[in-house]
Amino acid sequence: MITIKSEREIELMREAGAIVAKTLDLLELEVKPGMSTRDLDIMAEEFIRDHHAEPSFLNYAPKGDPDVTPYPATLCVSINEEVVHGVPSRKRIIKEGDIVSVDCGVYKSGYHGDAARTFILGTVDEKIIQLVDVTRESLERGIAMAVEGNRLHDISAAIEEYARSFGFSIIENMVGHGIGSELHEEPAVPNYGRRHTGVKLREGMTLAIEPMIAIGRSRRAVSRRGAWVAVTEDGKPSAHFEHTVVVRPGKAEVLTRSFLQG
Ligand code: MF3
Ligand code: CO
């Protein structure tokens, strides 16, 4: 069932979303080569708790996979060919030339916010800069379709068409999702699909839209049995951006916008 949130519920989600955005802003300013992914995680958890909120991902247990243990951290930090769910570690050192995708969820007053950004550390290939720019823009194209009266896969198709027009591939086995009192609610929000199909979008639906796009031909992110981190099949880099949005008439409301300018 897809729930429609009341304005009161959306107000609470706005608070959670603002903390997500500020956490990512902090990490964007602080991330440097030589830091470990665990350093980022500690910084994020402290910031979130200082704002009287909790990390959504910590201890999250996906239903139906007994091999996977509850998620042990605040952030997912996924570097280069890692698509999603990189578990922060003291031993994983960020280096110049990496692209670092940071995914953050915050739970406050009964509601979640969820967003992700990919940061570029220093000098990287032109193609990788393009990958990151195109993934960020594909999310904006998707968000632009999250308006009342459109259909769900109008979002998906906008993301797919934009990313594919640059020759990038869509990671098809990872999707966005409804969000609210649960981190993952219906509907699934794929990053590919046909326009004018899927459920009709109605004001008050809240969605986490999250394109995961890769260089090369990989169409899936794969993980070893029992492991959280999922990587591209061919080892080529991937990028990830995510926002939590409210479907509105005319223009979606984004709950996790950065407070940084530019
Ligand atoms: N944004 C990701 C998602 O919605 C992050 C989830 S991490 C997990 O799936 F630990 F909660 F699974
Ligand atoms: Co998400």
Structure description:
The structure is a single chain. The protein is globular and about 45 Å long. The protein is of the alpha+beta class and about 260 residues long. It has one domain (about 5-250): Creatinase/methionine aminopeptidase superfamily (Creatine Amidinohydrolase, Alpha-Beta Complex), CATH 3.90.230.10. The strands form 4 sheets. It has a 5-stranded antiparallel beta sheet. The chain has helices at about 5-30, 35-50, 125-145, 150-165, and strands at about 55, 75-80, 80-85, 100-110, 110-120, 170, 175-180, 185-190, 205-210, 210-215, 220, 230, 240, 245, 255. Helices cover about 25% and strands about 25% of the residues. The model has no long low-confidence stretch (mean pLDDT about 95). It contains 4 helices and 15 strands. Strand 7 (about 175-180) and strand 8 form a beta hairpin. The structure holds 2-amino-4-trifluoromethylsulfanyl-butyric acid and cobalt (II) ion. 2-amino-4-trifluoromethylsulfanyl-butyric acid binds near residues 76, 177, 210 and 242.
Brief overview, please?
The chain is α+β, with helices and mostly antiparallel strands.
Task: Please give the alpha-carbon distance between the first and last residues.
Answer: 38 Å
Shape: globular
Number of helices: 4
Please, how many domains? 1
Instruction: Give the spatial strand order of the biggest sheet.
Output: 8-7-9-14-15
Q: Architecture, CATH level 2?
A: Alpha-Beta Complex
How many beta-strand elements? 15
Largest sheet: 5 strands, antiparallel
What's the gyration radius in Å? 17 Å
Model regions low in confidence, pLDDT < 50 over at least 5 residues: none
CATH class: Alpha Beta
Order of helices and strands: HHEEEEEHHEEEEEEEEEE
